[in-house]
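Hey, can you fold this?
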Amino acid sequence: MTIKGVLFDFSGTLFRVEPVHDWLSAVLDASGTTLPDAELTRCARELEESGALPGGANPLKLPDHLADLWAVRDRSSELHRETYTGLARQVELPDPRLYDLLYDRHMTPAAWRPYPDTKRVLGGLRQRGIKIGVVSNIGWDLRPVFRAHGMDDFVDAYVLSFEHEVQKPDERLFRAACEELGQDPGEVLMVGDDRRADGGAAALGCAVHFVDHLPVDERPQALLPVLALAGDGR
């Protein structure tokens, strides 16, 4: 199989969102809100357990009134915000403004770190003439994250669920990505961390390669095999 295009998931594949404690601390500092250390620790723990940080852990227990929203959360920016602020509101915070401020924070480039090998792999694929796309279940425009980290020039196409109103594993999202790259699905590799969502590309005929959704410091080289899988692009 000759690989002429590679599609990447975003969160947990190329980039990782900041830890919940850092996320909450940044918002508290920006809003001028202070919490005792014990209270900060409690809030961070409960926010993580609730799954309130997009790109972080899934909810330990999904509230019944949010179950339907959770299933379609990535189909629009409105649904995405409503879902995650709803999860955050399961946690008692000192100021009601914080729920929207937390959501806003996670959309900033400062909240995201690339994995150590991301730039090397994207650059290596670009040098070989292989087309690159980012296919993400998401409710906001992630392009500024790539620009801020100096990686936007590597990406030929961004195919985001909220812009297409379709979520992975629906093959229509992968089909749109292959079309934007101008490549046949049989010559495209999909790289992601979610076996169900990203594995949906296989139904279209794409090859699929998985990485583990780990903290940045614990996954220094998981993307490097993509260079070998893609070969020389011819």
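Oh, and this one too while you're at it.
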Amino acid sequence: MRDADLVVMGFVRGAFGVRGWVKVQADTENTDSLFDYPQWWLKQKNGEWKAFTFEDGAIQPKTLVVKFEEVDDRDVAEAMRGMQVAIPRELLPKPPADEYYWIDLIGLEVVNRENIVLGKVTDLMETGANDVLVVRGETDERLIPFVSDYIVDVDLAAKRITVDWGLDY
């Protein structure tokens, strides 16, 4: 499986118990949404992706605990610490109109209405009221609310976001 075919949804925090369970930090809107997928892909230490079959799971405070069919030993589970967890992009539901997966926004160029490049999206933040784009330029960083007042257009094909945002904001 190639990186481009997968969407990273979290990472393994370490082992949980002695029977091969792992703790997973999910970077998803709904923490337990990963349980909907029967197969998870984990990025191995050598950079290759390997499929694991989801057997069971539970929600713990701030984390998931997961049992994979292929893992029955604490040492093996502990060796998985730090591995990224991904799901094939083709299995993700298509987002509604004017909604985007964060992973699809990271790396996009951000320009304002005057076509001045402000930088690239390096991250997004959830603030409660709305999401915020973290845009890094050559010499500065801008935080732009991801709301219709400021977002003019998102063109995934062109890898560009047009914003109503001045250089001096």
